[in-house]
Amino acid sequence: MLSVEHKTKMQKQVAPLISVLLLTALLCVSCLPTEPAPLLASSPVTETPAPLMLLLATPTLTPFQPLPPTATLTPTATIRPVATRVLIISIDGLRPDAIANAPMPVLDGIMQGGAYTLQAQTILPPYTLPAHASMLTGLCPSQHGVTWDTYSPSKGVAQGVDIFDLAHELGLKTVMLVSKEKLRQVTDVKNVDVFRFVASSDENVAKLAATEIAKGFDLMFVHLDDVDVAGHDYDWASPKYLEAARRADQALSMLIVALETSGLRDDTLMIISADHAGAGENHLENDPEVTTIPWILSGVGIRPMVMNEPVSIVDTAATAAWILNIPLPLEWAGSPVTEAFGIPSESRPVPRCP
């Protein structure tokens, strides 16, 4: 048993140690965090997801409704038929206003059922031979080289490849009937299957043309010159001139009857135009009354319209070649007038032949 003296000695030794322990405890309590400690990466927490609910929409079925008997389906694209032969008719010296002033009911009827412009332009100089050379070669005078207007065999024929050269090379039947001998120099007549120079009236030219139509053709050119002769003899605004225009209209009627009788009208494209117009008793000037000509398309696939795009006499050969599926020579100044078929035409410079 410990003595009182010994107990007192132990208490004195332990008291300082207890004080240190109490102080340490107080300090540790003040260092404890006030928020829960973050979870350790090694102790992941997994959550039990709530059950998924799939919402399946019930489709509404519509019973099939057959088309009524009168319903028609509209196709997204329409292939328009095109002609298989071309007839080019040149009414020499025809002013656009003569069609109404004469009047020319046959030509007017063709216009209303076809595509046309009364603002087409010929070339300069506006002479018969150079203009017809441009009409059938698709070239400007600076290209085909025909600048004279008289029959001069020593000067040869228009340079370049023309629509008759191309058609003949492909084996197509070609026919030319002209009422002025100088038009022999528009093309090499050796490349024309049937060439006729008929120094006679429009009526007689049309009769011969009707005979050739009955024999069949792929490309035909018919030249009527009564209107031009009357303009030179009596003035382009005279009653005699308008009378000649009416005769040309009657000749045109004969050609249409021949096409219909031969069963060729439905697949023939007609291009009706002029080489130049006139003012006074001549057509020598760069005057809108001289250089502005009618240009008319009639036939299968044509959309009736007054054409808005500019048309030049050099576009005649190009349009004929396009219809006949003949590749166009790169040097041609003309291009096909496809606007009449509902196809935007290629961009064309204006004027075509500076």
Task: Give the SSE layout.
Elements: H1 4-30, E1 85-91, H2 98-101, H3 105-113, E2 115-121, H4 128-137, H5 141-144, H6 163-169, E3 174-178, E4 194-197, H7 202-215, E5 219-224, H8 226-234, H9 239-261, E6 268-273, H10 288-291, E7 292-298, E8 305-306, H11 315-323
Parallel strand pairs: 1-5, 1-6, 2-8, 3-4, 3-5
Antiparallel strand pairs: 2-7, 6-7
Helix pairs in contact: 7-9, 8-9
Word description of this protein:
Residues 1-80 have low confidence and may be disordered. The chain has a single domain, classed as Alkaline Phosphatase, subunit A. With 354 residues, it is α/β, with parallel strands linked by helices. It has helices at residues 4-30, 98-101, 105-113, 128-137, 141-144, 163-169, 202-215, 226-234, 239-261, 288-291, 315-323; strands at residues 85-91, 115-121, 174-178, 194-197, 219-224, 268-273, 292-298, 305-306.
Key attributes of the depicted protein:
alpha/beta, 354 residues, Alkaline Phosphatase, subunit A, 8 strands, disordered N terminus, eight-stranded mixed β-sheet, globular
- The mean pLDDT is 83
Continuous helix count: 11
Structural class: alpha/beta
Helix content: 25-40%
Provide a concise account of the structure shown.
With 354 residues, the protein is an alpha/beta fold.
